Amino acid sequence: MALIGGILSLAGSILTAWAAMADQGAETSQARLSTAQQLLAYSLPIVAANLLYTAIPLANRALITHLYGFAETGQFSLAYDLGLRAVLALGSAMDVLLFQMAVRAHETHGLDRAKAQIARNMTMVIAVLVPACAGIGATLPSIEQLIVPLQYRGPFAHFLALLLPGLCATGMIHFAVNPIFQIGKKTAPVIGAALIGGAMNGVLVLLLAGGADASGFAIAQSGAGIASLAALLAFAARTRPHWPVLRDLAAIAISTGQWFWFSCRCTRPHPVC
Question: Please, are residues 198 and 225 in contact by the beta-carbon 8 Å criterion?
């Protein structure tokens, strides 16, 4: 019923804004099959990859339910869902503006200038997402006390600490690396990266599942995100993109590491430290 309600809500929004979305001069008779094929070639790989990324946690939840019961699944799901929403909220807020800047650069100055803008965008995404995820990890006890119901405390911080590396990698995939393929309009490699992530999740689940709780599944899911990111970076390197300046990346890594270390020292007991 929740899914049906969401679909009806979206449909209502489209119908309400139908007149505003109509472009003058864009008649049905002007539709071209070649344009539709280009749109499908661009968008279908992204949609398929997102479907695979969604299937990984759903499959893990089903296995957790089978092995440990619904209570453990609820503990695991709350940590994953809240962590994912935090990462996606940060990334999408930047992506709305940053990718449009790259598109504008492509339209006015060509592909090479657009690739340079994508590299700057990657630096900004990294500069926000990596410290944000480190901040979530460093302040997990406080977050747990503030927003998590009493019956979920303990497992929430434990699972989220294990999931955070994969969640950070997921944010990097969607908002830092995927734009490399989007601006070049060659999005097929994103499916390959998602498949590699799914395979890594399966291997790690076979190796780590069967413990006292679902920690092995959290590690496997994180490993899947990291493997997908590594594969996507390898695929991106073949397109000869512009990369962020190493000095900027080093500054982000050093400053985040120092802040995280001091925060952990001030927040004990801590599930990460």
Answer: no
For the chain, what are the domain ranges? 37-266
Per-residue tokens: 12: 């209502």
> CA 117 to CA 119: how far, in whole Å?
5
Helix, strand, or coil (residue 92): helix
Q: Where are the beta strands (DSSP E) in the chain?
A: none
Residue 162 Cα distances to 155, 159, 183, angstroms: 11, 5, 33
C-alpha span between 9 and 11 (Å, rounded): 5
DSSP 23: P
Model confidence pLDDT, tens digit, residues 14-35: 888 888 887 777 777 788 888 8
Q: Is 25 left (phi over 0), alpha (psi -120 to 50) or beta?
A: left
- According to the 3-state scheme, what is the secondary structure of 212-247? CCCHHHHHHHHHHHHHHHHHHHHHHHCCCCCCCCHH
What is the percent of the chain where pLDDT is above 70? 96
What is the Cα–Cα distance from 245 to 242, expressed in whole angstroms? 9
List Cα–Cα distances, 71 to 64, 65, 85, 152, in angstroms: 10, 8, 21, 10
Quote the pLDDT of residue 261: 73
Higher-confidence position of 109 and 199: 199
Please enumerate in sequence order all residues whose Cβ is within 8 A of that of 110, keeping only pairs 6 or more positions apart, or say none: none
Structure tokens at 7: 């679909």
What is the spatial distance between Cα 3 and Cα 105, in angstroms, rounded to a whole number?
Answer: 38
Confidence category of residue 154, pLDDT binned at 50, 70, 90: confident
